[in-house]
């Protein structure tokens, strides 16, 4: 009898376990099928004259994927490339504009693949905090999406086509991933604007026109950075100045650095391979200063000078020129942000707060006055790796053959 009960109990437990597993195999009851959603790839936010905003969405066209299309593609409401179309609506805020956009679309708007957000310059100058709050509170937009500011209307950027990528949004994302400009995500932007300095810099987009034989072609390009203070755009730094910011953030991986060694004819170009950047704050009485310490290695990729840098003495000359070049780039942008913009987009406030919390609390409410007065000291050491210059430069070999 006990054996029969044990056998029955075992069968009952197996039945319960099997029944429970059926619930796990039933799938996600609230999942969204591709055919039911409008996939947003990029979003543009502009300011209208009637104190409303214009929200523009670049939406992926699933049926066009994998199909051959004629150049230029086709779409309704403006084109962002042959695989996307752009749709816009006005509203008193983002939530209002989205509800109006949803009323025009037969599919549910899906933000999970939106990897690019662009603020038009007009709305960026007025203030972006309200719109940033909405994006952070909404459950769908990814915090890893890239943030931009555009010269003129942001909507126009979405309407541009890309020769190589499927959409202008994808082209912008690839530009940022190549690290030729600042890389700022939604999460990064929020952290910067809520940090001690309450300042940020975003990639600044312009529309470029390439003239062809039959027709012109327009495309987006990164031209420096828009400077945001509190939540408003207060100025702009050039691409050259942005390179100084990239050095300070240790993000100078996508650039080739070209310089002319002092007293020598010709240029040397190299790629930075590694860089270690330290910002070291110092307070001596009423004097505040910052040591910018950079240690970097680079590889020569082209030598148009007459220097044979396989020789140690010439190598030292090139390394000195490399160091001086880095200092000029960093110094160039620090002069601009301290004296003209008076906005700490380089993270000095964070470093002083970390090392000198008591002194920081005394100046935090007037940091805009203190930041421009900080003295900068430089400690830059550059080293050149020995790859890429085993042979003498062609120019030098030709001169030797003539002799």
TrEMBL record:
This is Ger(X)C family spore germination protein. The keyword Translocase does not apply. It is found in: Membrane. Residues 224-388 form the Spore germination GerAC-like C-terminal domain. GO terms for biological process: spore germination. PANTHER family: SPORE GERMINATION PROTEIN B3. NCBIfam families: spore_ger_x_C. Its main location: membrane. Residues 30-206 form the Spore germination protein N-terminal domain. Pfam families: Spore_GerAC, Spore_GerAC_N. It is a lipid-anchor. GO terms for cellular component: membrane. Belongs to the GerABKC lipoprotein family. InterPro entries: GerAC_N (IPR057336), Spore_GerAC-like (IPR008844), Spore_GerAC-like_C (IPR046953), Spore_GerAC_C_sf (IPR038501). The keyword Transmembrane does not apply. Keywords: Germination, Lipoprotein, Membrane, Palmitate, Signal.
